[in-house]
Amino acid sequence: MTASLKAALDPCSIAVIGASENPNKIGGRPLLYLSRFGFRGAVHPINPNRGEVQGLRAVPRLSDLDEAPDLAVIAVPGEAAVAALDECAAVGVKVAVMMASGFGETAGGKAREAEMAARARARGLRVVGPNSQGLANFGTGAVASFSTMFIEAPPADGPVGIVSQSGAMSVVPYGLLRGRGIGVRHAHATGNDADVTVCELAASVAEDPGLRLLLLYLESIPDPHHLAQAAAVARARDLPIVALKSGRTPAGQAAALSHTGALANEDRVVDAFLEQHGIWRARDTGDLVAAAELYLKGWRPAGRRLVAISNSGATCVLAADAASAVGMPLEPLAADTQARLRTILPSFAATANPVDITAALLTNSRLFGEILPVIAADPSADAFLIGVPVAGQGYDVPAFARDAAAFAAETGKPVVVNAPQPGVAAAFRDQGLPVFASEGGAVQALHQFIAHHELIARAAPAVPAPPRRAPAGPARLLNEAESLARLAAAGLPVVPHRLCRSAEEAVAALDALGAPVAVKGCSRDVPHKSDLGLVHLGLREPDGVARAVAACRDGLARAGAAYEGVIVAAMVQGRRELLIGAHRDPSFGPVVVIGDGGRYVEALPDSQILLPPFGPEAVRAALARLRIAPILAGVRGEPPFALDAFVAAVCAVGRLMEDPAIDSLDVNPILVGTDETACLALDAVIVVRDPAD
Amino acid sequence: MTASLKAALDPCSIAVIGASENPNKIGGRPLLYLSRFGFRGAVHPINPNRGEVQGLRAVPRLSDLDEAPDLAVIAVPGEAAVAALDECAAVGVKVAVMMASGFGETAGGKAREAEMAARARARGLRVVGPNSQGLANFGTGAVASFSTMFIEAPPADGPVGIVSQSGAMSVVPYGLLRGRGIGVRHAHATGNDADVTVCELAASVAEDPGLRLLLLYLESIPDPHHLAQAAAVARARDLPIVALKSGRTPAGQAAALSHTGALANEDRVVDAFLEQHGIWRARDTGDLVAAAELYLKGWRPAGRRLVAISNSGATCVLAADAASAVGMPLEPLAADTQARLRTILPSFAATANPVDITAALLTNSRLFGEILPVIAADPSADAFLIGVPVAGQGYDVPAFARDAAAFAAETGKPVVVNAPQPGVAAAFRDQGLPVFASEGGAVQALHQFIAHHELIARAAPAVPAPPRRAPAGPARLLNEAESLARLAAAGLPVVPHRLCRSAEEAVAALDALGAPVAVKGCSRDVPHKSDLGLVHLGLREPDGVARAVAACRDGLARAGAAYEGVIVAAMVQGRRELLIGAHRDPSFGPVVVIGDGGRYVEALPDSQILLPPFGPEAVRAALARLRIAPILAGVRGEPPFALDAFVAAVCAVGRLMEDPAIDSLDVNPILVGTDETACLALDAVIVVRDPAD
């Protein structure tokens, strides 16, 4: 953890600029909380009009203090806040938490905010905010926040950390978790992220050895290297991260811009990045906290096979449906297990999996406790769902809950409970089991928990490389010959071809390459040739080739494009046209796209994203996620495609994109077939940037 | 409502066979409930060993009663239950509710159950169950059920009806609704549906004029005509139906078979059927009740445009994302509205939509009440989301709730509230507003409510046609010539072709049709020709045609298939190959499938289902849902496809399937192009059934 962010998370002393006697004002709440939640360091109200605020001695100005505080809360608005920030820098405050709104989230406010933050940073002051609700560490009592939530849902220190841009989203998950009895140590809101970003703070919070679950709310990820660093720290510490990244849609991005000044990220790049770093992406507030209890139990899922047990057949059916939908199989229990269950349960009960105890449980509450040890010994399960949708009078619910807890302890495997009735839910929850109100909710949380562990296991080693800056010159197109040459140099298999200036050279190329050939006009001014009549296919005779050269020359002239020759290329056959594309995301850097090719690439998109660095395994996994994956594997008696050369080509493109001078590239089509020699790039466009003059 | 089901829902007198003194036994609960919940009719405990049960005079046998009761609860198990059922039939009981398990849900039990039910039915006795938890009508107090839920969550009569196969799923939604203060009139569980099915009972329940929302839980739909009837009654009464149909997946279907003996339905046929009848399909227990408050408010949504208002920018962003994801646009508020909002809100607040009040609400609670009337007057909204993710001390939450309720009343438009804090939620709920714990939950419920109304508006007039029985003979293939002739007779455009017995006839056909032609071996024994070398394309010369005829003759002989001639067909060009298929679902009857054609129909499925009867509009809507819809509409400068002839062909297939002798058909490919004459069926296979000998 950097020293400056240690002062944010664990300050020794705190000043509140704009301290208020009223604990319901922004400048009053932090004082209330620092006193109420046991902060042991010095607290200094700053108020020019009062000698004492909330029982603490106040001074008029920050400079009146004997010593600069580690952290200053700036609870004054507008220009006064800017002045206070400068004052913090002047006296040597380490971190300022700036609560004032009206900066980067307003039209034209971004530049002013950046300038203000840069000025502070240059003088050694880190800034959280502006537009921040504040920081809250319940491990130390350093609660420099004005959130109302800490009054409404009193804190308890615990193993969860929350780092959020939004104030509300720093405390809504807190409130939901506290309502379920889970302790939360950190609840930080970074606001506009003018200096300290939510990702940088998360990387520091991840170092807290007391944490076992880290939750993030992000509206933008301008600094993925910080998030990668947080992920690396978390992975090393076995700390799962669940992130809710909003601004998925244009409407959401517009709202985020006017909320925290957040700039839009391409959403499926965000998906790919989070996946690469082992971070589970939640889709909604509820999702963010849904599986918290599972993470905190310390279970290590070994697989996805679910065994469901209920006194309701409907719960069995719904759980089986929900599990199947997320790829969790229900395997039949062993014959021996089933035989033992049949000696306990009524004849009409189901014993295969799901296990339906039936309404006989009403007559005999002991059935539940009797079958669980039998099932615990069965080898068919990696995880369990216990459903008690209806119970109460006539049932020994406390015994069910005790039996289920003992079962969970005995198996050491994840157990979720479906219990929509509040009383039944409370009994199971009191025994430490994760309880859900529907079969779907229980299965989804279990699936998230298991799939997240799978994700963490296969996540790429985090390499938080600092972003490389592209040359400052304007973007320019390489022509097809240059593009293909660049790809060939990078190791991609490229169709045999010659760049020819004249008809004579083209005819010679026909001889050399063998008929038939394609003739294509070559110009750095023309990325899309076919619309301009610059592509002539299947030429077998010298006359035809010569005519094609003339037509290309004419076509380019008509388009006002430079004539840089024609490409004469062998006509080759493949079974399918794929594509490889790459571009540079303003935040995430190189992005490689692979997919099905052909005429309808935009209308019928079928592509997957890869973020360099990646290896052949990641490419194969991406291919397996394409819609056309069954065809690549071979259907209707067709042989499978040979894809090693294609996979190697994609890896080569990934490496090529490490060169910051390459802005984007498009290899389309690249043929593939049933043997590796069929893999050939037929056409390509590369856009480069040169150094500025 | 049939008289017999009136006795199920509103009986004048009830006997309980196997009446128990213990209210926690299956035979004790109904007596407890009939007494506790105010049933005014006669109640007769039947018990051979006691003169009095739970304070009521008991008689040993049903035949000891002076008069047959309307309804008898059979609370004895196994063979005693079967005997009791026969006794009910003998004395003239109208409806028996059979609670015993161990019938159709067990291996081999289906036939025995059907026989038992048929015997009762033949004597005028309707049977609910077996394996039924019972019927509960809180409007009359006729609660002939043993569910524990009615002790745990005391009833209140209200506008919701629940009809379920499963006992648990008849009361879990009940419990969730009661927990939210919503009254429930009906909570019926039909069990194995040996006679009265959940759909038939639902059709009767739908007639209750007190209902404003009907919820169904189904594990199987063997009698769609009953469900169609329920839908027709409900539509006439403006009663929305939400259904949870489980057994979506093979694992769920297996579990349903051993729960209620439910047979599997093809899940996407279920989807299409429910949609056709205006029934919203819930995906989980939570879904089933999520939007209940919205239905009960009596709102009439006029469109999908959402306006979101919150004191949290994150709620604004998350609501915008969630709304966009379900196709609900956020349009900017009118300039005038925004100008007025800017006079009220701080300068850094967002006024376009979403409206972000910001944390300034903490300092000034009146902001909320001041902006709502301004927004109410704006024309840009069809529905509203109000998000108060954090409030409490320092905020005037009761005023927010009152203001929001007044706003909802003034606009008459749907309003949902996102309030994850229990105290804040309670304040809004007390004002009669639907409250949710997350932005996603609120938007999803609102979307369901609006999309369901759209669904009801476009639902086909319900035509509960009794299923027509197919001829009993075995299925047999028509050959290609017969199949094409049948299609042509039905009005489909079919490729010009001749059926020829000899090479001479084939050569004459070449002359008549013009070169090139296709020659295909024709045999009722061979549905798939290309694998056997029976398809010869692009023939231009008499020699080639003659050789093709010989090759077809040889190929059929080698395959041991009858030679019924060759089809000589014109070779025609179209821009794309589509397909039309049809089959007969064992429950739902005719199912028509349309989709993209070509080699990879199975590997890359892109098809939609239509249930006859349907018209051209439904076909066009189905085409618009295909993945290839953009291509059909014209992309990359291509002209759109002319699809009137194809749409008419699909409608013709729908009518053709009204003939129960047609088992299935497959028109693949059927060409389409840019003018209507391009629409031609190139190949077809029809499977028919003949009357039994």
Give a structural overview.
2 copies of one chain form a homodimer. With 693 residues, chain A is of the alpha/beta class. Chain A folds into 4 domains: 288 residues, NAD(P)-binding Rossmann-like Domain (Rossmann fold, 3-Layer(aba) Sandwich); 157 residues, Succinyl-CoA synthetase domains (Rossmann fold, 3-Layer(aba) Sandwich), CATH 3.40.50.261; 75 residues, ATP-grasp fold, A domain (Dna Ligase, domain 1); 114 residues, D-amino Acid Aminotransferase, Chain A, domain 1 (2-Layer Sandwich). Helix content of chain A is 38%, strand content 20%. Chain A is flat. The interface between A and B is large, with 105 and 105 residues. Chains A, B: This is Trans-feruloyl-CoA synthase FCS1. Chains A, B: It holds the Pfam family Succ_CoA_lig.
The gross shape of chain A turns out to be flat
Q: In percent terms, what proportion of residues of chain A is strand?
A: 15-25%
SSE class of chain A: alpha/beta
Helical content class of chain A: 25-40%
Q: Which chains have the largest interface? A: A-B, 105 and 105 residues
Radius of gyration of chain A: 32 Å
What do we call the CATH homologous superfamily of the largest domain in chain A?
Answer: NAD(P)-binding Rossmann-like Domain
Q: Count of DSSP helices of chain A?
A: 25
Number of domains of chain A: 4
Weakly predicted, low-confidence segments of chain A: none
Count of strand segments of chain A: 30
Major beta sheet, strand line-up of chain A: 9-8-11-10-12-13-14
CATH architecture call of the largest domain in chain A = 3-Layer(aba) Sandwich
Kindly report how far apart the N and C termini of chain A lie: 40 Å
